[in-house]
Amino acid sequence: MPQQHTGAVEVLIGVLARAEEASNRIQAAKALAELGPEAKAAVPALIAALNDSDEQVRGQVVRALGRIGPDAAAAVGPLLEVARKERSGFVDISNAIVQIGKPAVPALVAQATKSPPWSSQSRYALFLLGDLGPKAREAVPALADLLRDEVLAFLVAKTLLKIDPENANAIATLLEVMRKPSDVNDDLRAAEVLIHTKRKKEVLPFLIKALPRGHKDQDEEPWQVAGIAMLLWELGPEAKQAAPVLAKRLKEVEPRAEPCLIHIAGPLLKIDPGNQVARDTLLSHISLLKDNLNPPSPVLVPETLFTIEVATLLGRDAKQLIPRLEQLLNSEYPEIREAAERGLKVIRGDKK
Q: Given this model, what pLDDT does residue 259 score?
């Protein structure tokens, strides 16, 4: 660490520990966060400050620990304890632990395996291990043992597949969930995970079977069909055998459920590009596609990308959407700009 930073860290530690004004302690924590790994000497002081009386100070301290990264490994246990007690700041604590990375794994494994399986602490630790992805590979043996716990089996399998996308034990567990007579929602939760593995083709029969099963709540049924259709979207033309039953369910959608139409017709057109029912439905509800092509907030980026691809599948029939796609060429999100450019070439019929 540069000498000037060493001195600065010492000063900031003093301010954080002794300043009477909360605003000064907040600024000290912010400054330590800006120094990142170079502020590793401040970790003990930051851990102590997790008990500061001021909520804003505590929030800045959490962010500083995350910015320090792996050198803040000693803070993982205290951060998990804060998460257990606090009702706010959950996202910042989660982000900080994920930023600390691989050194956080032992504490997370301990919490996942030693807490009661129905407890929020166990589930929270599993979510964080999943967020760590391949960095949490050392947790795999302990998590494999947890697959035997019926309460946690689904969440453990999902976590394992985030760490190791082709984990055989996790895939087998989820396939077993789908083979057993169960609530359709359990099947769909398992399918949603398996669809991103090399065994994804084995999901198709379950999705087709789920389509005509319906839902006890008639208001929810079209949206459940849309959810299944979006999983079929992931399979693309490999799911063409689902087209007839999906087309049937599309025709059954009532006017009050119109907003879900593009999430059924779009996947139907992708798995069966020549399906006229899907094409006609999308073209007769082009306004829904237009609405989805407004400049998105971060949370709506996937929805916008989906809509652009649906428009692209429509080809020259989607000329009404050209002005909206042209606007998206200036999007702040590069993936949207690239998708809009590809879509415009297809819709305009450009040969280049």
A: 85
Domain-wise residue ranges, the chain: 1-100
Tokens, residue 9: 């860290």
Distance CA 206, CA 64 (A): 46
| Number of C-beta neighbours around residue 314 at 10 A | 23
Q: Determine the Cα–Cα distance for residues 295 and 9; give it in Å rounded to an integer.
A: 42
Both tokens of 337, joined, read 């700009």
pTM, to two decimals: 0.72
41-72 per-position pLDDT tens digit: 999 999 999 999 999 999 999 999 999 999 99
Q: What is the pLDDT of residues 90-109, one digit of tens each?
A: 789 999 999 999 999 999 99
Burial class of residue 12 in the structure, from the number of CB atoms within 10 Å of its CB (0-12 exposed, 13-18 middle, 19+ buried): buried
Q: Which two tokens stand for residue 167?
A: 């984990």
Burial of 142 (0-12, 13-18, 19+ CB in 10 A): middle
Beta strands in 216-305 (DSSP E): none
The domain defined by 1-100 carries CATH number 3.40.50.2300:
no
